[in-house]
Amino acid sequence: MSHFTHMKTRFQNLFYLEKALNRLNIAHKKEENADLNSYNINLVIPQSNGYNIEFVWHEDEYELVVDMSFWEQPYPVESFIDKISQQYAGEVIIGESQKIGFQPIKYQQNVDGSNTLILERWNNEKIVETV
């Protein structure tokens, strides 16, 4: 008997969630979900056993929906979410910083599992000297 587990996340932006999955080389596809009141896009991570992992839009964030009896990932679900969360945070920082003029110059995964992100922004204001 299968039991679906629904885990709340803090993932609110589909674009950044997809970028995080891409950075982690996690294959996924979009699935359109239209109900009576809204139109949402969910993300599906296929598994070879046919029991897919889904990020389903629920109110204001994505929930991870999975049947834990059929989990096929190389690490536990908590580690899976942690890895995605770390990449998602990096993508949000880069994307939102670019909106205010910063550019990423270094994004590195460290041996300890942390990431190093360096951003820069040049000030193009003309300096006027008065004598």
TrEMBL record:
<protein>
    <recommendedName>
        <fullName>Uncharacterized protein ycf35</fullName>
    </recommendedName>
</protein>
<comment type="similarity">
    <text>Belongs to the ycf35 family.</text>
</comment>
<dbReference type="InterPro" id="IPR009666">
    <property type="entry name" value="Uncharacterised_Ycf35"/>
</dbReference>
<keyword id="KW-0150">Chloroplast</keyword>
<dbReference type="GO" id="GO:0009536">
    <property type="term" value="C:plastid"/>
</dbReference>
<keyword id="KW-0934">Plastid</keyword>
<dbReference type="Pfam" id="PF06868">
    <property type="entry name" value="DUF1257"/>
</dbReference>
